[in-house]
Design goal:
Number of strands: 9
Shape: globular
Number of helices: 27
Number of domains: 4
Strand order of the largest sheet: 2-1-7-3-6-5-4
Distance between the termini: 55 Å
CATH superfamily of the largest domain: P-loop containing nucleotide triphosphate hydrolases
CATH architecture of the largest domain: 3-Layer(aba) Sandwich
Length: 704
């Protein structure tokens, strides 16, 4: 596995510089100039050591132009491998490879929503040949999607369809097939969810780079270059056209942002170095049509459309499933001895091909839900013919209602990290999560944003709680009667305000790097201490007052602790800022949480080391007071980190019954059961229809 440095560059040296300056100033005020001078000596040498670590790493990053090019190519191949592994596993988890892929087909969309055919085909097309050209380029089936995409001269494609028509599945399968056909050095197709993009705040390239850095650790590195280290590898690949974006869910963006998103896409495509600039995008048919129809939702009130079609992009629309495809899919997974139970339903579909049952099962989503609820269980699908199901929406709501009970009827497999949650518990917790996302207008379920699910008063108490625990101990055990300090610090903690979400750290701390980093740190700490001993004793040597006893006294009381704790601090900084990234996989919610916990632990140990040096050994204050300050500093640091906030989320929401204590295990288990899906480092509900359905159910329960 390859490794490279973080882009933070000189950040450790600047952090250490500010810390030393602040410590010296406080020491001069608190304990006098003599000890402050000694503190300055210690700080300057520690700062020199940190700078040495940084400069050493910076020099090692210099490369020749040819070496930088080779490195870029190597990293691009690692990205392709990580993307392929990610979607191979996700396709298996979503059941897209078995029992039988649904035979989806598509046809040309309404010409009003696409660019001129001559622009799409990059050449003149005679009027009498337009229908033939559309049929050739814009018609096909699931297995032909990659061929159709690569036939397009511009390789720009928009996929439309009604809710549940299989747009995301088509985009996923297209990504996998393009990766399978990809040649070394070619652009890498990457599937991204558009739900989190706000074109009013972020340029398309910046948003894509942020998403890529979160999901693929290899792209968090600075770009290999001879001169500048300011651009991330993700941003360089995006701007150079080495990433083919497969953008899923324009309809999942806020309604007022969709026209701006199309305009931003057109601007970004026109600025690409390669005029072809391949791109794939999916959207619901109705929402996409409204962007170009005057007076409709998403259009201006002045009578003119607010968006222009995606430049040179072909637009296709997914067709409803055929009855033969529905029958083959439902029967294939049903045991032969039970296939007869489908006869009444299939007979009804054939006698009423335009009825509500046929309409409901015309989408892959509803057909797959029927398959899960009835083909894989002993339940009788004839219930679908009940007289209370008078229209399509009633049947779809019934199938959505069956999903969670069916998913949680099966016990988890032995290798699955889960508790035996009941369907009632799971539905209650999932309704809460769906309502949380609905209030925020979001589709991405990021664990580090669950802090926003806590009421404002709960988030306000995050900081005063550790302060209260520490100050109570300090008042009772250390300094009885200091109630005024208790109130002042508690008031300061309250003044911070309610906690907001903190993005998790992207730095991966691996155990194999701990020993080398600490070894370097202790070595530099020993050098700093030796230089400090020399500087501390030089005045006595020149004045003739030097003695061996004073040397040993300074060594034991100051310089040996500085060597140990200073070396630990330097080693931890090196571990945090100069840590190789694992490039063999894409990030998952679990791996992001582990990385943030590890970096939080390293920062906590660094904070403790600095406090021990400054408070106890340099300033000479009471050890008990120093320990209490270390504890409160670490607790406050934890409250500012995403993984520390998750602990508060688990406690608050767990005690209130809104989520289980093992929230991450529950989310991962829901993904394994097919209720949630994983998109990089975040979860999403299996389908937006499911999320909306749970929102409606949760709202009804709340009203009752």
């Amino acid at each position: 596995m390859s490794g490279h440095r973080s882009r933070l560059g000189w950040a450790p040296a600047w952090v250490a510089c500010l810390a030393v300056c602040g410590a010296v100033t406080l020491a001069g005020v608190a304990v006098g100039l003599d000890r402050a001078d000694k503190l300055a000596s210690v700080g300057s040498f520690v700062l020199a050591a940190v700078a040495l670590v940084t400069v050493r790493g910076g020099r090692s990053g210099k490369q020749t132009a040819s070496a930088a090019t080779r490195r870029r190519d190597e990293l691009l191949e690692q990205v392709a491998e990580a993307v392929a592994a990610q979607w191979r596993d996700e396709a298996e988890t979503r059941g897209l490879t078995h029992p039988l892929p649904l035979s989806m087909r598509w046809s040309p969309a309404d010409p009003v929503v696409m660019d001129r055919l001559t622009a799409i085909l990059d050449g003149p097309v005679h009027a009498e040949d337009e229908d033939l050209a559309r049929e050739f380029y814009l018609s096909g089936g699931l297995g032909e999607i990659a061929d159709a995409f690569q036939r397009l001269p511009t390789q720009r494609l928009v996929v439309l369809g009604q809710p549940g028509a299989g747009k995301t599945v088509l985009a996923l399968q297209l990504t996998r097939e393009l990766l399978r056909r990809r040649q070394p050095g070619a652009p890498v197709p990457v599937l991204l969810s558009l739900a989190s993009w706000n074109p009013a705040e972020l340029h398309l390239h910046e948003w894509m780079a942020t998403q890529l850095e979160t999901t693929y650790p290899v792209l968090r590195a600075p770009a290999p270059t001879v001169r500048s280290r300011t651009r991330s590898l993700a941003l360089e690949f995006v701007q150079a056209g080495r990433i083919t974006p497969v953008l899923d869910g324009l309809d999942e963006m806020a309604e007022h942002l969709r026209p701006a998103a199309l305009q931003a896409l057109n601007r970004a495509l026109s600025g690409q170095p390669d005029e072809a600039a391949p791109l794939v995008m999916t959207c619901r048919s109705e929402e996409y049509h409204h962007l170009f129809v005057p007076g409709a939702v998403g259009s201006s009130d002045t009578g003119g459309p607010t968006a222009q079609p995606l430049a040179a992009a072909a637009v296709i629309e997914l067709c409803p499933l055929d009855l033969d495809d529905i029958e083959a899919y439902l029967l294939q997974a049903t045991p032969a001895s039970q296939r007869a139970k489908w006869d009444p339903v299939l007979q009804h579909l054939r006698t009423q091909p335009q009825g509500p049952y046929a309409q409901a099962l015309s989408t892959p989503l509803m057909t797959s839900l029927a398959h899960s609820a009835y083909s894989q269980t002993a339940a009788d699908p004839a219930v679908l013919l009940a007289p209370e199901f008078t229209d399509r929406s009633h049947i779809e709501d019934h199938l959505l209602d069956r999903l969670i009970p069916t998913a949680y009827a099966a016990r988890p497999t032995p290798d699955r990290d889960s508790d035996c949650w009941t369907a009632e518990q799971a539905e209650r917790w999932l309704c809460f999560l769906a309502l949380h996302l609905h209030r925020r207008g979001n589709r991405d379920l990021a664990w580090w944003e669950l802090i926003l699910a806590i009421p404002r008063i709960g988030r306000w108490l995050m900081y005063p709680l550790p302060a209260s625990i520490w100050l109570t101990f300090w008042t009772v055990a250390a300094s009885p009667g200091w109630w005024w300090e208790w109130l002042s610090v508690l008031g300061l903690a309250l003044s911070i305000g309610p906690a907001g979400p903190s993005r998790p750290s992207v730095t991966e701390i691996r155990t194999s790097n701990v020993a080398p980093s600490l070894k370097t740190g202790f070595a530099l700490g020993a050098i700093c201490s030796a230089m400090g001993i020399v500087v501390d004793n030089l005045p006595d040597v020149f004045s003739g007052q030097w003695c061996l006893c004073r040397l040993f006294d300074g060594l034991l009381s100051l310089w040996l602790p500085v060597m140990l704790f200073g070396g630990l601090a330097i080693g931890l900084l090196k571990l945090l800022f100069d840590n190789p990234v694992d490039t063999s996989h894409s990030a998952s919610p679990r791996s992001v949480l582990r990385a943030d916990r590890a970096s939080t632990l390293v920062l906590a140990l660094f904070t403790a080391s600095v406090f021990v040096i400054g408070w106890i050994f340099v300033l000479g204050f009471d050890a008990l007071a120093g320990v209490t300050y270390v504890v409160v500093a670490v607790m406050f640091a934890g409250c500012l980190r995403a993984s520390g906030q998750l602990f508060w989320v688990r406690a608050w929401l767990g005690l209130s019954g809104r989520l289980p204590w093992r929230a991450m295990a529950f989310l991962d288990d829901a993904r394994q059961r097919g209720v949630l899906r994983q998109v990089g480092a975040v979860y999403q509900f299996r389908h937006a229809r499911l999320q909306d359905h749970l929102v409606a159910n949760g709202s009804k329960s709340h009203q009752r």
